[in-house]
Amino acid sequence: MKKIRNKVEYTQGIMVPSDGKSGGLAMMWKECVDIRLKSCSNSHIDVEVHESSAPTPWKATGFYGHPDAALLLKHKQPQRREKKRFMFEAMWIREGKCREIVEGAWESGRVETMEGIMSRIKRCQDQLRKWNWMEFGNVNKLLRQIKGEATAIGNVG
Questions:
Q1: CA distance from start to end of the chain
Q2: Which domain of life, per UniProt (predicted)?
Q3: Coil vs helix vs strand at 1
């Protein structure tokens, strides 16, 4: 790597050695550039570039392979809670309103395309989720609360 660096006249650099025959990463620059290493691993090099002509430094990051998603999320955006996967609940069948919601969601919209069918399914899912919350609330929380109370009563007796 030193031969390449000298040949292209980039005398400064950071090198992450390869792991056997795979990997290896290098970032090179000319001596007159002010580069400050922020972090590096076997799959990335992250630096700040300070220029006398710029009021603030800018970042440069080089990746090899698939970057660590957790590293990207930490620097780019706050983590969001993943939306809970939709599950049709068997207890809904006992409620007449469930059938109305499914039929209403399914009847509106076009069916000619796969997108139309997916749109109907999504609309049905959204309306069932909203109805479930208003009708039953947080069932899992309620069950945990009832189990806790039953355990407490069992411990008293």
A1: 77
A2: Eukaryota
A3: coil
